[in-house]
């Protein structure tokens, strides 16, 4: 559930990735990522939180939402020796754990579940402090929903920057400095990285190798835990965009530029080495399959002689640790 905290800026990664490969910086895919999907006709639609809906009296709690059944509550609560709440990012994890059910339940009911949980876990004064922080978070979510009206579609880098600045001002106005840092510091660091990366990629005065070097330097400056989260996501994005380029007939040069822009020169080198190994393996496999087929089609040989010849052929082409894999690939041939 920790990934819930990072969903907003991971979505930004995907959006900006598609944005980069578009000729004019705006793509249908990008637009679909920032527009909320339409709910099925028979689905229970829960409206986005507004200041009026979230401040209403607590809703009656129904049965536990299906998505939470069998899960452990994410996020821990800590107090200091005086009984005060210790402000950490774990509190946001806890809030988002319950708010992830909005759609199955109303926003008000999700908030009520959080208050009920806090009441069973915290003494005073930590309880009152946690409830106040929850209200700040609810107000923040409501204000962000209103803010989306000003930025309905993120179309260019300037718009992304303006939206990020507006969101950061909003956070600073609602949260204490301590809570702001605990809840959002990692997200804001990542968003800054994303926008700086975008600016480098769109800078026509830089050569491709220089862009890649600068982007790799930016990535290396990220905290280790963020790099651990970012790298798999970038590779997923790379895989999807590589497939899209190849489907359009792109050559190795275009694939290399995409790799350099997303994962930097070192990872690009490793991927190219892996490509070469795969090509060599496939060539060996194709050669073996061709010679094997010739043996199987040779007239006048007994089946036992054919199988003996194929075993000898496999020993000539493959190491012992490769032969099991080859045999499994040829089983249906």
UniProtKB/TrEMBL annotation:
GO terms for molecular function: unfolded protein binding. It is a single-pass membrane protein. Its main location: membrane. SUPFAM superfamilies: Lipase chaperone-like. Residues 49-67 have a biased composition (Low complexity). Residues 44-75 are annotated as: Disordered. Keywords: Cell inner membrane, Cell membrane, Chaperone, Lipid degradation, Lipid metabolism, Membrane, Transmembrane, Transmembrane helix. One of its GO terms (biological process) is lipid catabolic process. The keyword Chaperone applies. It is found in: Cell inner membrane. Pfam families: Lipase_chap (PF03280). InterPro entries: Lipase_chaperone. One of its GO terms (cellular component) is plasma membrane. May be involved in the folding of the extracellular lipase during its passage through the periplasm. Belongs to the lipase chaperone family. NCBIfam families: PRK01294.1-2 (NF002334). This is Lipase chaperone. The lineage of its organism: Bacteria, Pseudomonadati, Pseudomonadota, Gammaproteobacteria, Pseudomonadales. The gene is lifO.
């Amino acid at each position: 559930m920790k990934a819930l905290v990072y969903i907003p800026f991971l979505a930004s990664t995907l959006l900006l990735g598609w944005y980069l490969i578009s000729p004019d910086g705006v793509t249908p895919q990008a637009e679909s990522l920032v527009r909320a999907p339409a709910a099925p006709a028979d689905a229970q639609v829960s409206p986005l939180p507004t200041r009026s809906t979230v401040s209403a009296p607590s809703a009656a709690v129904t049965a536990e939402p299906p998505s939470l059944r069998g899960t452990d509550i994410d996020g821990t609560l800590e107090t200091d020796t005086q009984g005060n709440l210790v402000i950490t990012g774990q509190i946001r994890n806890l809030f988002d754990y319950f708010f992830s059910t909005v759609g199955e339940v109303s926003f008000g009911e999700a908030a009520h579940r959080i208050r009920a949980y806090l009441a069973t876990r915290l003494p005073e004064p930590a309880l009152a402090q946690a409830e106040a922080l929850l209200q700040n978070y609810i107000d923040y979510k409501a204000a962000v929903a209103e803010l989306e009206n000003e930025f309905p579609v993120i179309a260019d880098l300037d718009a992304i920057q303006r939206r990020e600045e507006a969101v950061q001002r909003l956070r600073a106005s609602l949260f204490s400095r301590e809570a702001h840092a605990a809840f959002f510091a990692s997200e804001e660091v990542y968003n800054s990285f994303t926008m700086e990366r975008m600016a480098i990629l769109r800078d026509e005065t830089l050569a491709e190798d220089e862009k890649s070097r600068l982007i790799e330097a930016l990535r290396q400056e990220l905290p280790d835990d963020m790099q651990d989260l970012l790298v798999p996501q970038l590779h997923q994005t790379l895989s999807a965009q590589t497939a899209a380029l190849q489907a359009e007939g792109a050559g190795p040069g275009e694939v290399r530029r995409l790799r350099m822009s997303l994962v930097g020169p070192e990872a690009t080198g490793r991927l190219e080495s892996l490509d070469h190994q795969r090509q060599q393996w496939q060539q060996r496999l194709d050669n073996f399959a061709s010679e094997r087929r010739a043996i199987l089609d040779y007239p006048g040989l007994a089946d036992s002689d054919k199988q003996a010849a194929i075993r000898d052929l496999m020993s000539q082409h493959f190491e012992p640790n490769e032969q099991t894999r080859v045999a499994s690939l040829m089983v249906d041939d």
